[in-house]
Design brief:
This protein has about 325 residues and is an alpha/beta fold. The chain contains eleven helices and 19 strands. It holds the Pfam family Metallophos.
């Protein structure tokens, strides 16, 4: 795989533009993933393009908010915003192991954009949803939206790398992703959304009403209910506030969230979308671009897990330099 060329914009901007020279075709790229991950994760006979083309037809049959019970002897790993950081994704998978009856994964949106390897992240996460439909789940984030990823880096990346013929296929996969998960542990129930609780006339929308929304579309209105699920933020203060994201979504007040959780008999709202200084904080926010993810088990409840990288590695060297050894896990109970 050829390394991307990185062009840094003038000092007035923090943005980094990544320009990819043509690389392997989509099946050649998938072959590299097979080699890196092995048969525990990827069936050696599978081809990725027909899988991506068939996936929207399966995804659109899912409810907006799905219920997922955690196995009594197992756990669920919640991975927040990856944002094209493929090495973080690989380290999490090798640290925890392949999806199974006792090891479930939830990718909580914003798989693509900003990082240098959005194509790899999108291919692998969507493929895992296909191969392990009972163990791997995905929530849609605000970057799984054509209006957003066309302005950020994903569409540019697929064009630069010669995958533009799959543009519509990727967008159809993204737009048909479900919006949230009700995670049922032994004694506690959590709700995972990418952004936050949507509001209708100042009151939180019920899960029943969330399930009645149409989701197979791009967000056109800055504050409609679909947009809010993907874009809303949580506030530590009482009272709802205007968004600081150019008007997209709202900031939901603490008392509104508490009222929603109590009415729906939920322990926590688990969300991503917001970068936190330590990678997480209570409400919970999980931001896996910072190599932090959550682990929910029937026996131990909710834990915060930090990936420990054993050696430095640039993202564009993932094939040659990625350590496939299992990393030591640091757990902090909450």
């Amino acid at each position: 795989m050829q390394k991307p060329e990185v062009a840094v914009c003038p000092a007035t901007s923090d943005r980094v533009d990544i320009v990819y020279p043509p690389g392997p075709d989509i099946e050649g790229l998938f072959d590299l993933l097979k080699e890196a991950l092995g048969p525990r994760f990827i069936n050696g006979e599978d081809k990725i393009e027909p899988i991506l083309e068939a996936l929207p037809g399966l995804l659109k049959e899912e409810m907006n908010i799905q219920e997922i019970p955690i196995p009594s002897e197992g756990y669920m790993i919640v991975v927040g915003d990856l944002h094209g950081q493929f090495r973080n994704l690989m380290e999490i998978l090798h640290q925890e192991g392949p999806p199974s009856a006792v090891r479930h994964y939830l990718f909580n949106g914003d798989i693509v954009d900003r990082g240098p390897s959005s194509v790899e992240c999108a291919i692998l996460v969507l493929y895992l949803r296909h191969r392990f439909p009972e163990y791997v789940f995905i929530n849609r984030g605000n970057h799984e939206d054509q209006g957003v990823n066309a302005q950020e880096t994903f569409v540019k990346e697929i064009t630069d790398r010669g995958f533009q013929h799959l543009h519509n296929t990727f967008q159809q996969c993204f737009h048909t992703l479900s919006l949230g998960k009700i995670i049922k542990a032994k004694t506690e129930t959590y709700l995972a959304l990418h952004g936050g609780t949507p509001l209708h006339e100042g009151d939180p929308l019920s899960i029943k009403d969330m399930n009645s929304l149409e989701r197979n579309m791009s967000c056109a209105n800055k504050q409609d209910l679909l947009t809010q699920i993907l874009w809303n933020d949580m506030s530590d203060k009482n009272g709802n506030q205007d968004s600081q994201r150019a008007g997209w979504g709202l900031k939901v007040g603490q008392e509104v969230l508490e009222r929603f959780l109590g009415k729906e008999n939920l322990k926590y709202l688990i969300r991503s979308h917001t970068e936190e200084p330590h990678g997480w904080r209570l409400v919970f926010s999980a931001f896996s671009e910072a190599a932090i993810y959550l682990k929910i088990s029937a026996q131990r409840g909710l834990e915060i897990v930090k990936v420990k990288f054993e050696e430095p590695c640039h993202e564009d060297q993932w094939v040659s330099n990625l350590s496939l050894r299992t990393s030591e896990t640091s757990l902090t109970s909450v």
